Amino acid sequence: MVGLVAALSAEAAPVMGSVLGHVRLFGLTLELLLIAVALVLVVLAARRRGRPERPSRSGWPLTAATASVMVLILAVGLNTELLAYPTLADLLGISRYPSPSSVEVEDAKLNGAIADIPVPDTASGFGQFDAEVWLPPQYFTEPLTRFPVAILTHGNPGHSTDWLEGGDVAEVGLEVARAGQPVILVMPTVLRTPYGDSLCVDTASQGNAETYVVQDVVAAVDGQLRTVPDAAHRTLGGFSMGGFCALNLSLKHPDVFSVALAFSPLTVCEPDAIDGGNEELFGTPDWQQRVKENSPADYYRTLDPARGPAVWLDAGDDESLTAPMEAFGTELAETGFTVQVHTRPGGHDFGTWTPALEAALPWAAQRMGQPAR
After folding, report:
1. What is the mean pLDDT of the chain?
2. In the predicted model, is pLDDT for residue 89 greater than 70?
3. Interatomic CA distance for residues 109 and 328, integer angstroms
4. Do you find a cis peptide bond into 188, omega within 30 degrees of 0?
5. Widest CA span of the chain, in angstroms?
6. Element (H, E) at 340
7. Are 2 and 93 in contact (CB under 8 A)?
8. 350 with 121: CB under 8 angstroms?
9. Distances (CA, A) of 141 to 172, 221, 224, 234
10. Assuming Cys at both sites, which of 51, 133, 139, 329 could form a disulfide with 341, CB separation 3.0 to 4.6 Å?
């Protein structure tokens, strides 16, 4: 199937992506279950048509079909729980959105538009992925204007579409744009597989995710969209693992990001989906030193707060990481950084992260300033 998809012509692939893009998580679950049921029915029908006068004692086709059904049901259950592949298009690696140049402009002038852009991994070798993009209405009504950007990273397990599927990011972006603060929202993939745990750092085991975000994603965005291509007009945000990505990378690269929006972040480098922990993540003799170099709570005192970034920390009051986050926010502010620390009712899910984005994005937009010509 993967080979077939890869062989699709340039004309057919966007059409299939558009069609499959309307199949949400429920549709994917239903389709996989229907495939499983159809598999059993096909085997039963074949056995009935080919049954000799004396019934065959071999039951392996039905057994194989039943086993396949069980595997599919298990896969569906895991996918539903983890939201690793929200749609069939994601499962097959097919882009679900048009390129920015082929967006339906008249509707986009009112509501903005979702599109895909390719992200070449020129600097990182991380992998070839598309990033989802939400473009504000002003992107289409003001064709000479350049806009600030917020790059929003996902958690683990996760996918670049998570902010769109679960976080209502297009609705939040539209509300901020209609308030006169339009921002381009970019959602890249930061895991080479949905069940990885890159923490957006460069490692042999998970790929050069830091270089991918800081260099490749930024270059792809500025090269393909009308952005204001400087740190002052660029925010990095994220939730869960992506919250750590936003906090760590923005503190390490204030020359690239002037604002960090870190929702439910850890303040230390601590993978939770790798059995061997940090030692396996980094896989080098100096792994302990690299952990310290990627743990904001350990290195923040070495930074110059005058260089930034401004930091928004946000988490639910039911999360175990909230207290350490609040303590870190206080320490960061005492050092001289501009810091906002917020807690809100909720847990480690979009019930917390969407309201956090609703509150934080206008703050980030105001700090980045108005679009420019």
Report:
1. 84
2. no
3. 42
4. no
5. 87
6. strand 339-344
7. yes
8. no
9. 19, 20, 18, 22
10. 329
- Tokens representing 352 are 């917390």
Are the C-beta atoms of 225 and 160 separated by less than 8 Å?
no
206-241 pLDDT per residue, tens = 999 999 999 999 999 999 999 999 999 999 999 999
Question: With contact defined as beta carbons under 8 Å apart, do 347 and 316 qualify?
Answer: yes
Look at the alpha carbons of 30, 32, 35, 41 in this order and tell me if their dihedral is positive or negative.
Answer: negative
Q: Is residue 45 classed as helix, strand or coil in its secondary structure?
A: helix
What secondary structure does DSSP assign to 237-266, as a single string? EEETHHHHHHHHHHHH-TTT-SEEEEES--
pTM reported for the whole predicted model: 0.78
What SS3 string covers 188-219? CCCCCCCCCCCCCCEECCCEEHHHHHHHHHHH
Helix residue ranges, H only, 83-208 = 88-92, 105-111, 138-141, 162-166, 169-178
Provide the pLDDT confidence category of residue 372 given band limits of 50, 70 and 90.
Answer: confident
- Give yes or no for a contact between 204 and 124, defined as CB atoms under 8 angstroms apart: no
Cα-to-chain-centroid distance, residue 176? 20
DSSP label at 146?
B
Of 74-78, 105-109, 238-242, 313-317, the one with minimum mean pLDDT is 74-78
